[in-house]
Specification:
The chain is mainly alpha-helical and 476 residues long. It has 4 domains: 157 residues, 3-Layer(aba) Sandwich (Rossmann fold); 149 residues, Rossmann fold, CATH 3.40.50.620; 56 residues, Helicase, Ruva Protein, domain 3; 92 residues, Arc Repressor Mutant, subunit A, CATH 1.10.10.350. 48% of the residues lie in helices and 10% in strands. It is built from 20 helices and 12 strands. The strands form 5 sheets. It has a 3-stranded parallel β-sheet with strand order 1-2-3. It has a 3-stranded antiparallel β-sheet with strand order 4-5-8. The radius of gyration is 32 Å and the shape is elongated. It binds one RNA strand of 75 nucleotides through β7, α6, β12, α11 and α18.
Length: 476
RNA sequence: GGCGCCAUCGUCUAGUGGUUAGGACCCAGGAUUUUCAUUCCUGUAACCGGAGUUCGAUCCUCCGUGGCGCUACCA
C-alpha cells in the first residue's frame, strides 16, 4: 500500500466546523492506517468569502485535534497559472471550448426555455467566430465539452454509482475573469498533488462524474473516491448555528478534551467492529476501515458526546487533567497563580474525587468551585428539600458544636459523630447529612460527604456551617 | 422540474431469506439503610408504506413516500 495520498481541502470561509473536522479525521485516519500522506489544500478561490484569519484558525483546530499534516499546504490562490495552462491544454485537445454567453443571457434563455442546462450555444462556434470575439476583447469563459456516454465509478463507501452524461451540464472550467471554478481547480490540484484517494463529503457525489470526465480529458489516472455521509442537527437538517455550537473551537473553549471530540466525530457513523466506542486516535487508526463507514447521514447528539467526553476524562491521568484545568481555575479566580507543591497535591486529590462526574474541564471550576472557596449561594431545589425549616438550624448547631470538639478531623471520626448525633436526636443520618452537604458545598450532590469534609479540613467546614446557619433557610 | 444518494429503537448503530432483531447514548425503575452528576442491576423502545419473488421476507426486486444532496461564471 505505497503511495497513498489523501488531502483535506477546506475553504477558509469560516472556522473549522464539526462536519469538516469529521472529514479531516477520516482522511487522517485513512492516511495513518495505510502509511500514507495526509495533505492540506486551502481552497481560497472564492475571493469574496475567503479570509486569511480563518486559515490560521483552521490550522489551529486541526492541531488541537492532534492531526498533523505532511508537506506544505497547497493554496489554490497561488496556482492561477496552472489552471490557465490546464485550461489551454483542454482547449487544444477539444475537451473544452470558449463560451461568450454572459450570465444575463444565460439566465434569460434558461427562463425562456425552462431548461436548466446550458444550451451549448458556443460549442459549435467556428474558429473564425471565436477569433473574432476574442479579438474584440470579448470576455470568455471556458466550458467543459462533455462527451456522450455514461460515467461511473465504484465508491469506497457507496459502491457503484453511474450517471448518464446527458445529465451533466457543459460546466464552466474557467470563469470569464480567469478564476477557475471549484470543479476544475479540484481536479487540476488533485492531479498535481498526486492524490490517490479523494475522501470528502457526500454532497460531492453529484460532482464526481464531472471530475472524472476531467481526469479523462487530461489523460490522468482516476483516484479512488470515498464519500462520507453528512452531519445533521437533531431535526435532521444540515448542521447549522441554530443547532448550537458547530465550530471545533467552540468545543475547545467549552473545555472538552480534544480526544473526546476526535473520538466522537470518528464513531459518528462508524462503529469499530469490536464494539469499543471509547478510543484514542491511535486505537482508532488500528481499527479504521473506509468500507465500514455507514451510508446514512448522522445526527450530532450532544448527550452521547458528553458521555464520550466523560469517559475520556475518567481515563485521563490526574496530572494531565491538572494541566488542562489549571488555567481555567486561575481564570475563575479560584486559585491565584501556579500552585506550590502542596497546592498541587490538593488539586490532584480534588481531581481524583471529582473527575468521574464531569464532562468537560470547565465543570471542574464551575461545579467544583467549593473546593477553593466558600459557597456563595445554595442550590434552590436542595434548600427547599433539605433545609426548609429552622428545625434544621437547631440540629446543625448541635452538629457544629460536636464537630468543633473533634480532635481528629477524619472521615471516620466525622462519620461516627454524625451518626451518633442522628441516633440521639432519633432521626435518620440523612437528615443531618443533606443539610451538611448543602452548607459545605452549596450543592445537593457530590462525592462521599465524610471524605469530602476531611478533605476540606476542620476550619473550612466549621466556617461554612456557621455561614449557612446565618443564611438558611431562605425566606420567600 | 431533472438527476443522484439514503431509509432498523428518540439518537448512533449491529445483523440475518427462518433470530426472543443485538449493543451504545438518552430515558424510566431499583440497589449501594447520605446524595447523584459516581458505581452496579433491571426495564421501555425500532426493521417507512404497498406490491412482487419465495414455503417464508427487516433482508432480494419494483413502485411509492420521506429526508438529504447536486442541478451557479459558490466551494
Amino acid at each position: 500500500m505505497s503511495d497513498i495520498r489523501v488531502r483535506f481541502a477546506p475553504s477558509p470561509t469560516g472556522a473549522l466546523h464539526l462536519g469538516g473536522a469529521r472529514t479531516a479525521i477520516y482522511n487522517w485516519l485513512f492516511a495513518r492506517a495505510n502509511e500514507g500522506q495526509f495533505l492540506l489544500r486551502i481552497e481560497d478561490t472564492d475571493t469574496k468569502r475567503s479570509k486569511k484569519e480563518y486559515i490560521e484558525q483552521i490550522y489551529e483546530s486541526l492541531r488541537w485535534l492532534g492531526m498533523s499534516w505532511d508537506e506544505e499546504p497547497v493554496f489554490q490562490s497561488q496556482r492561477m497559472a496552472a489552471y490557465q495552462q490546464a485550461a489551454q491544454e483542454l482547449l487544444q485537445s477539444g475537451s473544452a471550448y470558449y463560451c461568450f454567453c454572459t450570465s444575463e443571457e444565460l439566465e434569460a434563455r434558461r427562463k425562456a426555455s425552462g431548461v436548466y442546462q446550458y444550451d451549448r450555444k458556443c460549442r459549435s462556434l467556428s474558429e473564425t467566430e471565436i477569433n473574432t470575439h476574442l479579438n474584440v476583447g470579448k470576455k470568455a469563459a471556458i466550458r467543459c465539452n462533455v462527451p456522450a456516454g455514461t460515467t461511473e465509478w465504484s465508491d469506497c463507501v457507496y459502491g457503484k454509482i453511474s450517471v448518464n452524461n446527458d445529465e451533466i451540464d457543459d460546466f464552466i472550467l474557467l470563469r470569464s475573469n480567469g478564476f477557475p471554478t471549484y470543479q476544475f481547480a479540484v481536479v487540476v490540484d488533485d492531479i498535481f498533488m498526486r492524490i490517490s484517494h479523494v475522501i470528502r463529503g457526500e454532497d460531492h457525489i453529484s460532482n464526481t462524474p464531472k471530475q472524472i470526465l476531467l481526469y479523462k480529458a487530461f489523460g490522468a489516472g482516476i483516484p479512488e473516491f470515498a464519500h462520507l455521509p453528512l452531519l445533521n442537527g437533531t431535526d435532521g437538517k444540515r448542521l447549522s448555528k441554530r443547532h448550537g455550537a458547530t465550530g471545533v473551537d467552540e468545543y475547545r473553549d467549552q473545555g472538552y478534551p480534544a480526544e473526546a471530540v476526535f473520538n466522537y466525530l470518528a464513531i459518528l457513523g462508524w462503529v469499530p467492529k469490536d464494539g469499543n466506542e471509547i478510543l484514542k486516535p491511535a486505537e482508532l487508526v488500528q481499527r479504521f476501515l473506509l468500507a465500514d463507514i455507514a451510508r446514512k447521514s448522522a445526527v450530532f447528539d450532544l448527550k452521547k458526546f458528553d458521555w464520550v467526553s466523560n469517559e475520556h476524562i475518567k481515563r485521563m491521568e490526574n496530572a494531565e487533567i491538572c494541566r488542562h484545568i489549571l488555567p481555567i481555575l486561575i481564570d475563575n479566580h479560584l486559585i491565584s497563580a501556579e500552585p506550590d507543591e502542596s497546592g498541587r497535591q490538593y488539586i490532584l486529590k480534588f481531581i481524583d474525587l471529582m473527575k468521574s462526574r464531569f464532562r468537560n474541564f470547565r465543570q471542574f471550576a464551575e461545579l467544583g468551585s467549593y473546593f477553593f472557596k466558600d459557597p456563595e449561594t445554595y442550590e434552590d431545589k436542595a434548600v427547599r428539600k433539605n433545609w426548609k425549616e429552622t428545625e434544621v438550624n437547631r440540629r446543625m448547631a448541635i452538629l457544629l458544636d460536636k464537630l468543633q470538639q473533634l480532635e481528629e478531623f477524619s472521615a471516620v471520626s466525622i462519620e461516627s459523630t454524625v451518626r451518633e448525633l442522628a441516633d440521639e436526636l432519633d432521626i435518620s443520618a440523612g437528615k443531618l447529612i443533606h443539610p451538611l452537604r448543602l452548607a459545605v458545598s452549596g450543592y445537593s450532590v457530590g462525592p462521599g460527604i465524610f471524605e469530602l469534609l476531611e478533605f476540606l479540613g476542620k476550619e473550612t467546614v466549621l466556617r461554612r456551617i456557621q455561614a449557612a446557619l446565618q443564611r438558611l433557610p431562605v425566606s420567600e
